[in-house]
Amino acid sequence: MSWTEKYRPRTFEEVAGNQKAIAEIKKWISGWKAGEPQPPLLLVGPPGTGKTTMAHIIGREFSDTLELNASDKRSQDAIMRTAGEASATRSLFNHDLKLIILDEVDGIHGNEDRGGVQAINRILRESRHPIVLTANDPYSKRLQSIKPKCKVINIRKVHTSSIAAALKRICRAEGIDCPDDVLKELAKRSHGDLRSAINDLEAVASGEERVGEELLSMGEKDSTSNLFDAVRAVLKSRDFSKIREAMRVDDDPTLVLEFIAENVPREYEKPHEISRAYDMLSHADIFFGRAVRSRNYTYWRYASDLMGPGVALAKEKTYRKFVRYTGSSSFRLLGRTRKQRNLRDSVAGKMAERMHISPKVAISLFPYMEIIFGNDEMAYEMREFLELTDEEVKLFRKRKIKAPKAKKTRKKSDKTGPLYTQKKKSRSADRGSKSTEGKTRKSSDDKSPGSDSGDDKPREKQTSLFQFSG
Ligand SMILES: Nc1ncnc2c1ncn2[C@@H]1O[C@H](COP(=O)(O)OP(=O)(O)O)[C@@H](O)[C@H]1O
Ligand SMILES: [Mg+2]
């Protein structure tokens, strides 16, 4: 059972936030109990705020609950039967009252059910039973004819501190030790959607005894400081035995891989070093996958060597500088909302396909993508390369991407040429095209073929950062 189900409130006292709304609902219930029929209750508010939950809690106050789906044929029949039964029985005894629940009447699950609206209106007209409706969108067209017949109660986003408190209760019940600031952070990211906050908590904490330190703070002596020791050994040294030693961590090796991937661009400075390091990581990733699938753990060894010494030797010499390593992005990139998670996954999918890496590694590259997208030209080219939508680009960059100016001189275009030219070129090689970007191609078309071929050399040398030969 998911945690959202497991910890679904059974009483009003357990519901977080919305105390005013609850007071009104209680008044409405007392009205019915006192033998005074009340108008249908319409709970309107954003997802994950407890509307369905409250509808069911209300149901406990009556003899029975009948949950109907107004866009479903069988439900419509049931609606009519109930409505008929109700209108035939002129006076209902209070203990016979059934609560009729019509959940999500604004029909976010499809819109060709006009019959649904008619059926709803009919039951609102005819039923003598108490009715609770819920909806997400107060401006939904479907609600226009329904709203005037109802007592509308606005359900608001749950306050961050109430969400944090709810998460804390769950952690206590699950026997998980999770620092308050992590809970607070999770709460903030959920933007008032308690369902998504609980889902996120379950994703990071389920089955753990303690969570969080590795995600929000660093440097404490625990298993994660070992994780960072491993990252540091790989990125900071070229000493085999030291690296192998440091890589003996308890953590899932793919997590180590993610941490290394995330920090490579923070430590390494030369493009070809970074390129080579990612090449190693992408191969390691493939071998980890193979090890798991085939249960042949020799692959594990290959993968570890690629990920450790392989990445370590990708640099020409060690850098003398202080770098603060991060390991928070996989946490941050859980995504605040379902929408963001979908966005994250679709971008990761595109990266995975084009770069021959796993979506998980793709996500670990997001911080690097942010750096790339900070540069106008690279942003433009990366967007074309991955075929990202405007919405997806926003994951890495707030400003709009301007189309690049036509290149004035060949020299300039060489210097700032696309990072991935090699890969693209190899695809379009037989077509003889040197560059695939609109404006750039235009300028190269202007040139004679001779100058084009001379153009190849510098580009070739500018090793692609994204050449993951998988
Ligand atoms: N106000 C709340 N108090 C406590 N738990 C909540 C609240 N809102 C949502 N939840 C949690 O999220 C889950 C989904 O809530 P639900 O009532 O289905 O939201 P809605 O119908 O508003 O989208 C519940 O099972 C519960 O675990
Ligand atoms: Mg609901």
Automatic annotation (TrEMBL):
Skewed-composition ranges (Basic residues): 402-413
Protein name (record): Replication factor C large subunit
InterPro entries, alphabetized: AAA+_ATPase, ATPase_AAA_core, P-loop_NTPase, Rep_factor-C_lsu, RFC_lid
Lineage: Archaea, Methanobacteriati, Methanobacteriota, Methanomada group, Methanobacteria
Domain AAA+ ATPase intervals: 37-159
Subunit text: Heteromultimer composed of small subunits (RfcS) and large subunits (RfcL).
GO molecular function, one term: ATP hydrolysis activity
UniProt biased composition (Basic and acidic residues): 427-462
Positions of the UniProt region annotated as Disordered: 402-470
Function as written in the Swiss-Prot or TrEMBL entry: Part of the RFC clamp loader complex which loads the PCNA sliding clamp onto DNA.
Binding positions (ATP): G45, P46, P47, G48, T49, G50, K51, T52
Keywords of the record: ATP-binding, DNA replication, Nucleotide-binding
This protein's record includes keyword Nucleotide-binding: yes
GO biological process: DNA replication
Family according to the record: Belongs to the activator 1 small subunits family. RfcL subfamily.
